[in-house]
Design goal:
5-stranded antiparallel beta sheet, 11 strands, binds adenosine-5'-diphosphate, binds magnesium ion
Length: about 300
């Protein structure tokens, strides 16, 4: 029997059209049952994700994480979710059985969260956690899983992966912890990664390493990345396209390179509120919100 290659080869997907949609979301609507009545957290959100880096930006509470979690159906039972479509390569996700959904989670769509401290098991060696992520979905021996995990640690640019394999989470730095999380999420070769503020807890130099790891995974392996962030400056340089959310709606969908031509006043306001190196500003303008934005329909804003 031949052993399959251990490192991830530049994929099957790499050669395909990067605009071919992996994920298609139409008219996604999410309401939570709150103590003071229902909270309508996401309103008519529509977008497509190809083999690209798509940012979802917006202020805290705008519904970004709720969209990310709903795609994986990780919302609380009390939430009401409707959509005309929420599909992965043509397969509708909202109507899958829980069992089928478990195969999608981790194997076809992975989620990377903000802080590895809460996602890694503190009493288990980090390498074993990566190997276990693979074993959960594949019938292979422990030795092969170990080799695959070491190779994956190398792919996420961890130096001396054999040594790091045996460390416990408290023995690794924040940046390395986040790359171990990425290794865990990547080892099953998902088609889509949803990264929810993956670098917000990291300092600037480590952030750059993690972003470049994610970038390599998207460009070399043809994955689609949803990058959730409140940092417009960051996504502007890192992502291909940007969805701007405000109060549960997508108010703008725009190529990152075109952000200077953003049409929605909220996007313009966010941009104006960013500090700039190329011109001196005494005070940054404060974003003035228009109540009309809350009524605005998301119609016509479809990525
Ligand atoms: N489990 C929940 N129960 C009730 N309300 C929730 C729940 N999760 C999120 N919300 C509400 O949904 C809205 C959007 O939240 P969230 O998606 O976390 O925003 P963001 O990620 O953009 O900061 C907020 O008003 C939040 O309070
Ligand atoms: Mg969030």
């Amino acid at each position: 029997m031949t052993t399959p290659p251990l490192s991830i080869p530049p994929t099957r997907a790499g050669a395909r059209d990067r605009h071919e949609p992996l994920l298609e979301v139409d008219n996604l609507d999410i309401t939570f049952a709150g103590d003071d009545g229902p909270v309508h957290a996401v309103r008519g959100v529509s977008f497509r994700l190809g083999r690209e880096k798509l940012a979802i930006v917006g202020e805290s509470g705008s519904g970004k994480s709720t969209v990310g979690r709903a795609i994986l159906r990780l919302h609380p039972a009390s939430a009401r979710i409707t959509a005309d479509r929420c599909s992965l390569q043509g397969q509708e996700l909202l109507t899958l059985s829980e069992r089928e959904m478990q195969k999608v989670r981790g194997q076809r769509i992975s989620m990377i969260l903000q802080d590895p401290k809460y996602s890694l098991n503190p009493v288990m060696r980090v390498g074993e956690q990566v190997a276990e992520a693979y074993l959960a979905h594949h019938r292979i021996g422990a030795d092969e899983a170990r080799q695959r995990a070491v190779a994956m640690l190398e792919t996420v640019r961890i130096r001396d992966p054999r040594r790091v394999y045996d460390l416990y989470p408290h023995e690794v730095s924040g940046g390395m912890g986040q790359r171990i999380m990425i290794a865990m999420m990547m080892i099953t070769r998902p088609e889509v990664i949803i990264a929810d503020e993956p670098t917000s807890a990291l300092d600037v130099s480590v952030r750059r390493q993690v972003l470049s790891t994610l970038d390599g995974l998207v460009s070399d392996h043809g994955m689609g990345l949803i990058f959730i962030s409140h940092d417009l400056n960051l996504v502007r340089s890192f992502c291909d396209r940007v969805l701007v959310m405000y109060a549960g709606r997508v108010v703008e969908s725009i190529a990152a390179a075109d952000l200077d031509r953003a049409r929605h006043p909220y996007t313009q306001g966010l941009l104006a509120a960013l500090p700039r190196l190329d011109r001196r500003q005494e005070r940054l303008p404060t974003l003035q919100r228009d109540p009309a934005w809350l009524q605005a329909s998301s119609e016509g804003v479809c990525a």
